[in-house]
Here is the input.
Amino acid sequence: MQRKLCTLYSLYQMKNDSAFAYLVKNASETIPLADTLMAISESKENEEPAKIRQLIDKAKIQAEEIDEQLLTFIVFSDIYTNNAVPKHFVNNTAMTTDEQLDMFILAREARIWWPLYDTSYSYWKSNPKTIDAKTRKTLRSLATELRELNKTIMLFKDEAHHMFFQEQAELNKAAMLRQLKPHLERLKKIQDDFSGHK
Here is the structure.
């Protein structure tokens, strides 16, 4: 029975490693979202409200895609040292390490969609339609961090073809978690500062 379980874990590890490599190889850039956030932050005071609404809605869709991509990277960063068994479960997500769980929680807290929801709501309520200076500054800060995040993602994307070998996948999973963390921490800090002014 134990041997059968070990074989099952090994097969699952191979599948997980392959999926991780595929996800990284096909990762989306964060630059389009950064560009949209900058367009909103640089909009004129008398800009046509329909145009601003369109930009905000576009940013929300882009942000949701990037948020989900980051969470998926983390979910597939399972480390299978000695055929590790999943020990953390969040909704339908299983994770094998404490670090992975902490990163998953951080990524949820750093979701870019949240400040865009607040921006959308504030803009809808404002009369006349305006985007305040604090919101503009926050969007610029998010855009700057997204450009830095893109550099990190693209570095891993460039190396993705090496990840199909198990040892390489394990190393890249650990490295990705380590390098994504400061980006997520900064994104969360920007949002915490923003929500503090509401």
Helices lie at 2-25, 31-41, 49-75, 98-109, 113-125, 133-158, 166-195.
